[in-house]
Amino acid sequence: MTIEDIAEKNFELDWKNVIPKEQFSPGMYFCSGVYDFGTTFHYYDISNDISNEIFIDYDGNITLNPIIFQDGIAIIKTTEETLDEQKINYKYGCINSKYEWIIPPIYERIVYCDNGFIMAERNKRIYIFNIYGEVQISFRQDEFYAEFSTGDVILKLSNLKTKSQYLLDNSFNIINKYNLNSKEEKEVSQGGYITFDNRIKNNIYYRADEKNNDIIINGYNSKGELLNALNLSDKIGKKFNVFTSQILDNGDLILCLNVENDTHCIVLFSALTSDCYTSYYFKDGFPFEQVYNFYDMLVFDNGIVMDNNLEYVGHLYNNDNYEVKIFVDKGKLICSLLKYVDSSESIFDKSLYQLSNVYIVYNNKKELSNDNLLVDKNRISKYVEPKGVYGEINIYLNNKRLNFDIAPITEDDRTLVPMRAIFEALGAEVEWENETQTATATKDGITVSVTIDSNKMQKNAEEIELDVPARLVEDSRTLVPLRAISEAFGCQVEWNEELQRVDIYSN
């Protein structure tokens, strides 16, 4: 079966054969990204123990270790000076298509999440930005695990301690909360185990439960309403182990089972329609690691193609001289044809390959682009923190710079800022009691009161000692301690000495 056979199955599809114009030392290749103007591969040169990223445009031209604009932004890696000359610290930030910094290079890791959001990590905390560089939500890395999704649910947060799952929409409001009572790998009384995909796709998620020694697969919508259930034990009729499961982009669940007598079985279940199909096509070995919806087909990463009823259609380029790898993203199918080469010098018993051909199948109504969205590395300027309006210190709330009508001051290494401006920036309502010289701010059930020259702050019924009290300047302006006020309202505050920059992140 060839790529042309795939394209002919749907009148909307077209295909192209891309032959790389440059070859590298034999190694291992994995497709890592698909774009309108080309595709990227992770390339591991085993003999030299070097990993690189390779970009191939659809004319076969190759760029080594590219930086690519996605939705008009690009992730930039910088180096940070250290006292240890042998040690290099990398910091990450983002620029826009005008080569302007929108996220400063102060983060330890940044990834683009394919849905208009960027996830950054710093000091064991995760920050979610929009494409304009504004922080939308933040949380501690050791408390929550984040997974981006599709459909109405943008983000799923998993509480690592309570096992609670939170489903959030694109405004980061909670749609649904539920408790996960199925471990990722769960032993069952029939003597087997299940390994289960706990993600959410197309507003659907699944949970595996055991009832009367039967394995029940329950499918839910994003509101937590049960759609349909499958008694997997009844369907199979024999003892089995679930090796792996995957929720497809359309919300269907596909499972790989090892049934009695070492027979492999594929099960496809739809929570929307309750349809369930099985296939015993795979007789030997582990059948797949990844499977993709592609129009009216299921395409496995090893080249197997089935229809949506799990009927076998064919095997792409089934040839002993080649390894086939499939990757589907953004409505495009990439088929990498890897030619085996002599692996006698290979370490770790890994086979070595040359990248022979890259086939792409795409919607012919959306022509492949000739636009070059690669970053010109010569145009990237060093990040320079803007000068503060009244001095060197800049203050940011969710990566948006705050401007004050009078200068913040520093006292005993603590920053004090205009009272009303910071309270209102945090979304609090402010009242001033002139007789007692006390400012009171209220937000979301939290009431904070500070009094001029007092080293005590009230947070609801709690009394908090301040390192530096609120001050009256220019006879009529009240300045309050920035960190204490922000943290009282549940914000994270970070200081960057090198940039002379304060970052406040609201939760």
Compute the separation of the termini in Å: 52 Å
The pLDDT mean sits at 85
The helicity comes to: under 10%
Instruction: Give the amount of beta strand, in percent.
Output: over 45%
- Spatial extent as radius of gyration: 28 Å
Q: Largest sheet, order of strands side by side?
A: 38-39-40-41-42
Using the alpha-carbon principal axes, give the shape.
globular
The helix count comes to 4
The profile of the biggest β sheet is: 5 strands, antiparallel
Which SSEs are present, and which pair or pack?
Layout: H1 3-7, E1 13-18, E2 28-35, E3 38-45, E4 50-57, E5 62-64, E6 73-80, E7 89-96, E8 101-107, E9 109-112, E10 117-122, E11 125-130, E12 135-140, E13 144-148, E14 155-159, E15 164-168, E16 174-179, E17 185-187, E18 193-195, E19 200-201, E20 204-211, E21 214-221, E22 226-231, H2 232-236, E23 240-247, E24 253-259, E25 263-269, E26 276-279, E27 291-294, E28 297-300, E29 304-307, E30 312-315, E31 322-329, E32 332-341, E33 352-363, E34 394-397, E35 400-401, E36 409-411, E37 414-418, H3 419-425, E38 429-433, E39 438-443, E40 446-451, E41 456-459, E42 462-465, E43 471-473, E44 477-481, H4 482-488, E45 492-496, E46 501-505
